[in-house]
Task: structure prediction
Amino acid sequence: LLELTGFADKSADKLLLGIEAAKSRPLDRLIFALGMRFVGESTARTLVMRIGDISKLEVTSVGDLEVLPDVGPRVALAISEYFASPQWRRIKLKLEQAGIALAGTSLKAVSNRLAGKTIVLTGGLNRYTRDEAERLILSHGGRAASSVSKKTDYVVAGEGAGSKLEKALSLGIPVLSEEEFAELIS
Result:
């Protein structure tokens, strides 16, 4: 690295530290990054919350997958086929050789305070990052959605909230501040 233009000791060290840190990202991020068909960020989080780690996920039956939230028959089949494929075995080997943590950091269930509740975040949050807030929702048994619908239970509105807030108000959906959201999960 030191031979490349623009790299001195400090920048090379920072890059190497960043690469090492990237090897142990949360497991849901790794599952999402695999690019499985129909598996988005929310489904990846659900898989980590309900299944735990990749070794268990690899052997989970289609029937056990399709009963999970965010996973139906089509998604369950896609997940099962992905983990049964030679492509996955090649990727897994390369990840292991690169020192990527396949066990990852799973999301732990803290409570069921938000069980069955769908929550949408909108606007700029001050107390939490968007990712932290979504993880809190999941860890308390809720579902973090990206758009407001009749099925939405709460909208957490931060600074500069726009169309999602307007839609929530027009549908009569309760709107919470960050402080009210923190009280709801405490």
About this structure: The first strand starts at residue 118 and ends at 122. The mean pLDDT is 90. The CA atoms of residues 125 and 156 lie 9 Å apart. The longest helix spans residues 9-22.
